[in-house]
Design goal:
Shape: globular
Membrane topology: Multi-pass membrane protein
Number of helices: 10
Number of strands: 0
Structural class: mainly alpha
Keywords: Cell membrane, Membrane, Transmembrane, Transmembrane helix
Order of helices and strands: HHHHHHHHHH
GO cellular component, one term: plasma membrane
Distance between the termini: 43 Å
Number of domains: 1
Subcellular location: Cell membrane
Organism: candidate division CPR2 bacterium GW2011_GWC1_41_48
Helix content: over 70%
Length: 210
Amino acid sequence: MIDYYALFQHQINIIEHYGLPAIFLSTTIENLGIPFPTEAAFLVAIGLITSSKLSFLEAWIIINGGMLTGSIISYFLGFYGENFYAERLKKSKRVHKTREVLHKWFEKYGALAILGSKLIGYVRPWSSFVIGIAGVPFGKFLFWTCIGTSIITYIDLLISKQVINIWLMYPEYRQIFSVILFAIVFGFFIYLIASVVVSRIRKYHKRKSK
């Protein structure tokens, strides 16, 4: 049987070992459009706050800085477009879905769609890239992205604080809790792998039927 508690704890240990740079880097990577589990980074940040090694404001600045860095890089990669990263992402079904969603949002809400894209998890990792492709002016993108990432970072830190409290209050449920966290953190990776496998099987059967 897979020890989900041990797996999740191992991820936390790695981030704890490398400290603040690991927290910053993990949030940067996720906002580059690369699916990366950041939940452990938030929990480590809350642990540092609880032990008085980091203030809430400092944690907010570091995580928000990572999100902004990843978002800005992703925006310019999409804006200029002629690069390996951009070509790979353009083929992604997730990116196509994000483009469809953001297009509808822009038609309804205009620039506020940028703010919404930073607050809703299933489009956030790819939103900056898509906004860059759309040629949205950088100033407008940066303004709404700063507001959006500031809000979501604050909310996620508060949620992580409650998660830590529950973790400490109910040690007898940690195994179950770890399974839930593992599913949240790694579920998307499992989905991606399954999607690739299913896609290749379908292509194989199509070639075989011709």
